[in-house]
């Protein structure tokens, strides 16, 4: 994940692949967290759901 206007990275903070495709999946995480992976996956899913709601509602 990188900043919105950065040249590096693939996914921006809104979970968009360079503004084209939304990725709401744990595979976009650059490193595996030391905590339980399910918690990180749930957090990504919650953030993605909120982003989708803001975009389409």
Describe the structure concisely for a colleague:
The chain contains 1 helix and 2 strands, in the order ββα. It has 57 residues and is mainly α. The longest helix is centred in the last third of the chain and has 20 residues.
The whole-angstrom Rg is: 12 Å
SSE sequence, one letter per element: EEH
Q: What is the overall silhouette?
A: flat
Summed over residues and divided by their number, the pLDDT gives a mean of 80
Q: Tell me the domain tally.
A: 1
Question: What percent of the residues sit in helical stretches (DSSP H or I)?
Answer: 25-40%
Pairing-aware structural class of the strands and helices? mainly alpha
User: How far apart, in Å, are the first and last alpha carbons?
Assistant: 25 Å
Low-confidence stretches: none
> How much β-strand is present in the residues?
5-15%
Strand order of the largest sheet: 1-2
Largest sheet: 2 strands, antiparallel
Q: How many DSSP H or I helices?
A: 1
How many strand elements?
A: 2
Write the layout of secondary structure elements.
Blueprint: E1 16-17, E2 21-22, H1 37-56
Antiparallel strand pairs: 1-2
Care to describe what's here?
The protein is mainly alpha-helical and 57 residues long. The chain has one domain (16-56). Helices cover 35% and strands 7% of the residues. It contains 1 helix and 2 strands. The chain has a two-stranded antiparallel sheet with strand order 1-2. A hairpin with a 3-residue loop joins strand 1 and strand 2 (21-22). The longest helix has 20 residues, at 37-56.
């Amino acid at each position: 994940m990188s900043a919105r206007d950065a040249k590096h990275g693939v996914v921006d903070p809104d979970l968009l692949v360079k503004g084209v495709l939304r990725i709401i999946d744990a595979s976009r995480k650059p490193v595996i967290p030391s905590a339980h992976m399910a918690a990180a996956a749930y957090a990504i899913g919650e953030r993605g759901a909120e982003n989708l709601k803001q975009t389409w509602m």
